[in-house]
């Protein structure tokens, strides 16, 4: 692992920890979340929150080295964001430098923002409500700033839609609220945690579900139930049970193409685990056909390519065994 600026900063400026300055991403970052919100409100800025693992996460280190430590990034965000570093170091000495209070705060915020991978970059308004999320991106600091600006545009669309909804009634109000949620492209758990009241308003304003919002929400609940049951069957290696679950779920008329695409891929994974590579690749083709333009389609094609290589490797294994004999 390369020595990075953030590691040197821990050693050179440890006295600043108590003041709230962070080192995981360099000078100018804040570690106290409540202080960061107050600063953002006072300066009319948003929050850029970096959930990072400074001494173990390779992609976090790359993001620091390639983007956050560069002047074009600092200049590009200085008038837009208060930078917040929430570090999750693993080395005892770095945990000690971070302090117990900061560790407790960071764990609480990790749970609050449903962060499961590192680095996670969460963009929030000064109240701490998320409007965008991202992670490591290739291309350097200038491209990353452009990417952040695109995500910030989602916040403006959100706010404009909320303002329009405040002046509307009935289905039109529901449409504006739905537009606000879609503009942010947040994970479902974040929408549920931070915008649950908006979902309630949409359903009240659109009792006949002309927007399709309630139908989509019901489909997501079914997907979550499927995923929970599917994970249990995978852990118990019950391939037949998993295949049967997939077939039952696909008959549900409440699921659209993309939802069915995700469900059917569980069957492909089950076949792959049991060495049925031809069947798994056939399922991949069926999955792509369900929603060819979905975000998942390219990943499914990539998975199919890996299956082909796994099939080749499995076919070569018996030959290698015979040669050794």
Automatic annotation (TrEMBL):
Signal peptide: 1-24
Family matches, as Gene3D superfamilies: Glutaredoxin, Tetratricopeptide repeat domain
PROSITE patterns referenced in this protein's UniProt entry, alphabetically: THIOREDOXIN_2, TPR
Thioredoxin domain sequence ranges: 1-153
InterPro entries: AGR/TXD (IPR051099), Thioredoxin-like_sf (IPR036249), Thioredoxin_domain (IPR013766), TPR-like_helical_dom_sf (IPR011990), TPR_rpt (IPR019734)
TPR repeats: 261-294
Keyword Iron-sulfur part of the UniProt annotation: no
GO biological process, one term: response to stress
Keyword presence, rRNA processing: no
SUPFAM superfamilies assigned: Thioredoxin-like, TPR-like
Sorted UniProt keywords: Signal, TPR repeat
PANTHER family in the record: ANTERIOR GRADIENT PROTEIN-RELATED (PTHR15337), THIOREDOXIN DOMAIN-CONTAINING PROTEIN (PTHR15337:SF11)
Protein name: Thioredoxin family protein
Organism the protein comes from: Luteolibacter ambystomatis
């Amino acid at each position: 692992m390369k020595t990075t600026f953030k590691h040197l900063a821990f050693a050179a400026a440890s006295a600043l920890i108590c003041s709230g300055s962070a080192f995981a991403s360099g000078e100018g970052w804040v570690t106290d979340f409540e202080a960061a919100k107050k600063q953002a409100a006072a300066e009319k800025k948003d929050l850029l929150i970096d959930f990072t693992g400074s001494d173990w996460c390779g992609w976090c280190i790359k993001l620091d080295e390639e983007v956050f430590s560069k002047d074009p990034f600092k200049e590009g965000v200085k008038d837009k964001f208060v930078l917040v570093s929430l570090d999750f170091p693993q080395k005892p000495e770095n945990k000690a430098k971070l302090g117990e209070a900061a560790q407790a705060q960071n764990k609480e915020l990790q749970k609050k923002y449903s962060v499961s991978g590192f680095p996670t970059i969460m963009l929030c308004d000064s109240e701490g409500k998320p409007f965008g999320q991202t992670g490591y991106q290739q291309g350097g600091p200038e491209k990353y700033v452009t990417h952040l600006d695109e995500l910030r545009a989602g916040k403006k669309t959100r706010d404009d839609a909320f303002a329009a909804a405040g002046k509307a009634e009935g289905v039109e109000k529901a449409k504006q609220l739905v537009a606000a949620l879609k503009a942010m492209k947040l994970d479902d758990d974040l929408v549920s945690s931070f915008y649950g009241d908006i979902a309630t308003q949409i359903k009240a304003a659109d009792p006949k579900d002309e927007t399709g919002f309630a139908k989509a929400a019901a489909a997501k609940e079914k997907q979550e139930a499927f995923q929970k049951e599917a994970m249990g069957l995978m852990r118990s290696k019950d391939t037949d049970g998993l295949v049967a679950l997939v077939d039952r779920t696909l008959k549900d008329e409440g699921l659209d193409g993309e939802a069915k695409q995700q469900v059917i891929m569980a069957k492909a994974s089950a076949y792959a685990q049991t060495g049925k590579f031809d069947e798994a690749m056939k399922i991949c083709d069926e999955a792509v056909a369900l929603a060819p333009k979905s975000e998942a389609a390219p990943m499914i094609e990539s998975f199919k390519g890996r299956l082909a290589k796994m099939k080749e490797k499995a076919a070569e294994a018996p030959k290698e065994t015979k040669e050794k004999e």
